[in-house]
């Protein structure tokens, strides 16, 4: 197995990483703040299940924000 450095990555992979990483962090922060402030009755499923799910990138925050919250 070879070790790839940042400079060894193709340009498209570096650009994609620099764009997507902040988006994932922002989604996770928004979802975590919402989860901490929202009453349990307004969430589909228990909060204790959603907390670890938020850190499954990028699916957890997207699922929580799109489906886990009740209107």
TrEMBL record:
It comes from the Bacteria. Pfam families: PLDc_N (PF13396). It is a multi-pass membrane protein. GO terms for cellular component: plasma membrane. InterPro entries: CLS_N. Residues 26-69 form the Cardiolipin synthase N-terminal domain. Keywords: Cell membrane, Membrane, Transmembrane, Transmembrane helix. It is found in: Cell membrane. The chain crosses the membrane at residues 15-36, 48-67. This is Phospholipase D-like protein.
